[in-house]
């Protein structure tokens, strides 16, 4: 993936700059852009097509969010039909669509964030400013699978030894409590061992540094400054109200060169990730064909 | 002057009645390789911890510890923590971080090294230890052997001059242990690192060592060259002698003199000084019943729909009243097979029968009470109460035994296993061997007709292994069928009736222990390798010695 070559700080800045305007603006063009940008990126980077279940789940969520708004909001001038004596308007349905697009695109971008910025990268970033917190988080991340394995191992063993065997509720509860208390004992035991291993390797000495394997290159600086510049312009336009959008009583949108510029800039920003991936792919195929 | 010196070191734990160490004195010269051995609880762990200032236990201490001629109390903290490296037994409890690269950077970070220095140290370690393939993995995804190598690499990032290793391979299988020892040997040879290692698996490291310390009840009872320990133990301490390399044990049994042979090749030369007119050990056919206790036919199993098959067309028959040992490499599916037999996992094809009945015809509770019981690899998983006694009582409760009958059952078990002193203690406070015995006691109180053991000798020293063999033969004599999964060929040779080699999801070779081991050239006992080509079928040291002595010495 092309994003593996980019410093995590740039990736974090990028995803934030894409999602924040989509979250706070009412302008559906931004949401459509954010949504399509995300889908495009995922198509280019996901190794497998999405599972039927995921698609069903997301469409269900979409329909639900669309439906909720017109049920509660009856503003708008174009009445389509009446439900229980309340008007269902075109505007409120469209507002629902906007909400759904907003939720969905934020969800997809969160997924992209997860894919781009692994916990390791996030910790490496955090380690710069909050070394203690980063260390704590990393060691807790290590502990989670360890405890989970331990718990299932203990449960299986106890099941095999007949602790859960009676099938009676009371028996199961006391059995579960016993296993749980033993896991607590085990983790305390584990914690003392880990802490002595830390001390043995010099933890607690003054002047601890934090190592990060990611280098901030010139290209990263360029990318970051482009992103920040785009952010500054977009925030300016958003604050000036030039990207405003009204649903009620009727749909209306600001127009003019500033609005157009803002929308195009956001579209460029949103598709930048997909564009980089696409370029990367084409390059690969091109080089391969040369060999 | 030595690199590290200890003079008249005596140490008593706060709650200890007797000192854990008594008047221990020795000096390690730069570049030496020293083994500390001795029975469990002899104080070797305490000694190693005391030599690592940062983790030294609290207690009453007298005597001197000196590093580079300086008293420990005056040594710079930065010097002592980077130049004296320490590695403990359990691979899991020494890993702090989530990712491998984070773990490697951990120690240099603590010492406040610069980015570039850390980068080069990490790079060096990765190249030297061959970590490239798993450098980007999470620490949790590693195998036990890889974890321990990572721990060693992490200690080595500080470039220590002394390595203190506390039974570093006790939790590893023989192949991983071999790799680990090979790495220690390389560090010693190529970098001149001074090594002090506490270990009871002497087979592989004795040839590397130039000195051995033998501790007994906290005092040094032998301090001398590596090839002298064999004679010492053969004369003084039969229990621990069982942990010596086969060639050294044989040397003791033959009452040879001169330097003891430390390798299989030297052992072969020693054996050839005896005649080989009689080539075979006379065997009495052990009588086992023909009623199968476990009968698996063409079983298939996998974890998850898309996983690969762990059991592939597995067939295995274990007869009532016999002890069957299943040997095989790591990850070959042996433990999975045990789980299928005890009903925790279920084969998706094929049949599994216990004592003639399909496994599914037993209801859950029924199978656990009196049919099968399993002792898992980690005995700690067996305990759920605050004392051993309570845990055993719980087992009796499961079996519906109460009152006076229960107390009698516990008494009996306790005297059978020799665990009377452990009853009131917390299971986690016991040593590895004691834990194993207490866990076995709980499992046996469920009165299984079929006892399943998963790597029962892991981490046990020679004396405990001998004890375990005694217990298991008593259990077998009562008619219990035993199925053991193990890496330990020596253990299988000495106490099993039949054995099988598990490979690629199926039992590849199966037969009596003698057939299996005397036909195998690689996966067999050391005694077998020593006698190979000279005698036909001995598989233990005792049998080789008997053949040698029976034929008599031909050359001098």
Give the overall silhouette of chain A: extended
User: Biggest chain pair contact, residues each?
Assistant: A-B, 51 and 69 residues
The largest beta-sheet of chain A arranges its strands as 1-2
Determine the strand fraction of chain A and express it as a percent band: under 5%
Q: Please give the count of helices of chain B.
A: 21
Give the SSE order of chain A as H and E letters.
Answer: HHHEEHHHHHEEH
| Overall average residue pLDDT of chain A | 89
Low-confidence stretches of chain B: none
The Cα radius of gyration of chain A reads 26 Å
β-strand percent of chain B reads: 15-25%
Pick out the low-confidence regions of chain A.
none
Find the count of extended strands of chain A (DSSP E, 2+ residues): 4
Quickly count the helices of chain A.
Answer: 9
The appropriate CATH architecture of the largest domain in chain B is 3-Layer(aba) Sandwich
Write out the strand line-up for the largest beta sheet of chain B, numbering strands in chain order.
Answer: 6-7-8-3-9-10
Shape of chain B: globular
What is CATH's topology name of the largest domain in chain B?
Rossmann fold
**What top-tier CATH class of the largest domain in chain B fits best?**
Alpha Beta
Average pLDDT level of chain B: 90
Question: Helix and strand layout, with pairings?
Answer:
The complex is a heterodimer of chains A (291) and B (556).
Chain A: H1 8-24, H2 28-45, H3 52-72, E1 79-83, E2 86-89, H4 90-116, H5 119-129, H6 131-160, H7 169-200, H8 218-240, E3 245-246, E4 252-253, H9 257-290
Antiparallel strand pairs in A: 1-2, 3-4
Chain B: E1 4-12, E2 21-28, E3 33-37, H1 44-51, E4 60-67, E5 70-71, H2 77-83, E6 84-87, H3 100-110, H4 115-129, H5 144-156, E7 162-166, H6 174-191, E8 194-198, H7 202-205, E9 211-216, E10 219-224, H8 229-236, H9 238-241, H10 246-253, H11 264-271, E11 292-302, E12 309-319, E13 323-328, H12 334-341, E14 349-354, E15 357-358, H13 364-368, E16 372-375, H14 388-398, H15 403-417, H16 432-444, E17 450-454, H17 462-477, E18 481-486, H18 489-495, E19 498-503, E20 506-512, H19 513-519, H20 526-531, H21 541-551
Parallel strand pairs in B: 3-8, 3-9, 6-7, 7-8, 13-18, 13-19, 16-17, 17-18
Antiparallel strand pairs in B: 1-2, 1-4, 4-5, 9-10, 11-12, 11-14, 14-15, 19-20
Helix pairs in contact in B: 3-4, 3-5, 5-6, 8-10, 10-11, 10-21, 14-15, 14-16
């Amino acid at each position: 993936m092309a994003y593996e070559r980019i410093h995590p700080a740039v990736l974090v800045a990028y995803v934030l700059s894409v999602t924040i305007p989509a979250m706070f603006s009412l302008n559906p063009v931004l949401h459509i852009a954010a949504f399509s940008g995300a889908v495009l990126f995922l198509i280019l980077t996901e190794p497998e097509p999405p599972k039927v279940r995921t698609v069903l789940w997301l469409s269900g969520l979409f329909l639900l969010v669309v439906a909720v708004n017109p049920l509660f909001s009856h503003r708008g001038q174009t009445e389509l039909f009446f439900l229980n004596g309340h008007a269902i308007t075109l505007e409120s349905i469209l507002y629902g669509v906007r909400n759904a697009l907003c939720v969905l695109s934020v969800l997809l971008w969160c997924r992209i964030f997860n894919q781009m910025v692994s916990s390791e990268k996030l910790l490496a970033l955090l380690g710069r400013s909050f070394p203690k917190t980063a260390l704590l988080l990393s060691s807790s991340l290590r502990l989670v699978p360890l405890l989970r394995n331990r718990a299932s191992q203990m449960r299986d063993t106890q099941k095999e030894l007949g602790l859960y065997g009676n099938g009676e509720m009371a028996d199961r509860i006391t059995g579960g409590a016993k296993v749980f208390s033993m896991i607590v004992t085990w983790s305390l035991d584990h914690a003392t061992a880990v802490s002595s291993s830390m001390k043995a390797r010099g933890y607690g000495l003054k002047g601890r540094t934090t190592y990060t394997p990611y280098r901030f290159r010139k290209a990263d600086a360029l990318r970051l400054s482009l992103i920040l510049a785009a952010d500054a312009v977009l925030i300016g336009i958003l604050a000036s109200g030039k990207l405003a959008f009204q649903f009620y009583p009727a749909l209306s949108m600001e127009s003019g060169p500033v609005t157009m510029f803002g929308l195009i800039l956001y579209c460029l920003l949103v598709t930048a990730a997909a564009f980089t991936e696409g370029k990367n792919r084409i390059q690969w195929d091109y080089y391969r064909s040369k060999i | 002057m030595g690199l590290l010196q200890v003079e008249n070191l005596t140490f008593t734990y706060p709650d200890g009645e007797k000192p854990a160490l008594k008047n221990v004195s020795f000096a390690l010269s730069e570049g030496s390789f020293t083994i500390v051995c001795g029975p469990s609880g002899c104080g070797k762990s305490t000694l190693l911890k005391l030599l690592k200032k940062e983790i030294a236990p609290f207690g009453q201490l007298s005597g001197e510890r000196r590093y580079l001629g300086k008293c420990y109390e005056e040594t710079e903290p930065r010097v002592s923590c980077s130049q004296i490296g320490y590695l403990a037994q359990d691979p899991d409890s020494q890993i702090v971080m989530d990712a491998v690269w984070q773990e490697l950077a951990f120690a240099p970070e603590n010492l406040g090294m610069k980015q570039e220095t850390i980068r080069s140290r990490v790079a060096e370690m990765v190249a030297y230890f061959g970590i490239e393939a798993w450098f980007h993995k999470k620490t949790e995804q590693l195998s036990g052997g890889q974890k321990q190598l990572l721990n060693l690499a992490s200690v080595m990032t500080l470039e220590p001059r002394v390595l203190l290793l506390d039974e570093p391979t006790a939790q590893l299988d023989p192949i991983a242990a071999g790799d680990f020892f090979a790495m220690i040997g390389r560090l010693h040879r190529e970098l001149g690192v001074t090594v002090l290692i506490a270990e009871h698996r002497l087979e592989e490291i004795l040839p590397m060592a130039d000195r051995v310390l033998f501790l007994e009840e906290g005092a040094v009872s032998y301090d001398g060259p590596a090839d002298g320990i064999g004679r010492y133990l053969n004369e003084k301490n039969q229990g621990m002698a069982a942990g010596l390399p086969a060639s050294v044990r044989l040397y003791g049994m033959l009452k040879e003199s001169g330097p003891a042979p430390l390798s299989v090749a030297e052992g072969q030369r020693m054996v050839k000084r005896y005649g080989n007119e009689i080539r075979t050990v006379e065997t009495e056919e052990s009588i086992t019943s023909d009623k199968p206790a476990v009968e698996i036919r063409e079983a298939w199993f996998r974890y998850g729909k898309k996983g690969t098959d762990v059991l592939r067309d597995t067939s295995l028959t274990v007869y009532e009243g016999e002890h069957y040992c299943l040997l095989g490499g790591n990850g070959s599916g042996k433990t999975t097979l045990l789980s299928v037999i005890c009903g925790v996992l279920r084969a998706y094809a094929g049949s599994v029968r216990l004592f003639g009945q399909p496994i599914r015809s037993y209801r859950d509770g029924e199978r656990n009470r009196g049919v099968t019981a399993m002792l898992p690899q980690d005995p700690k998983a067996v305990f759920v109460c605050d004392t051993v006694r309570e845990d055993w009582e719980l087992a009796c409760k499961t079996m519906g035994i109460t009152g006076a009958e229960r107390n009698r059952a516990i008494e009996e078990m306790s005297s059978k296993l020799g665990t009377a002193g452990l009853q009131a203690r917390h299971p986690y406070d016991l040593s590895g061997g004691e834990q194993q015995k207490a866990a076995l006691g709980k499992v046996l109180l469920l009165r299984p007709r079929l006892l399943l053991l998963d790597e029962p000798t892991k981490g046990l020293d020679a004396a405990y292994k001998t004890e375990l063999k005694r217990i298991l033969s008593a259990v077998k004599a009562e008619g219990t069928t035993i199925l053991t999964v193990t890496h330990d060929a020596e253990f299988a040779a000495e106490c099993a009736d039949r054995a099988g080699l598990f490979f690629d999801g199926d039992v590849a070779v199966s037969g009596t222990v003698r057939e299996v081991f005397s036909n195998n050239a690689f996966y067999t006992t050391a005694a077998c390798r020593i006698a190979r080509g000279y005698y036909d079928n001995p598989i233990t040291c005792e049998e080789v010695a008997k053949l040698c002595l029976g034929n008599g010495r031909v050359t001098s």
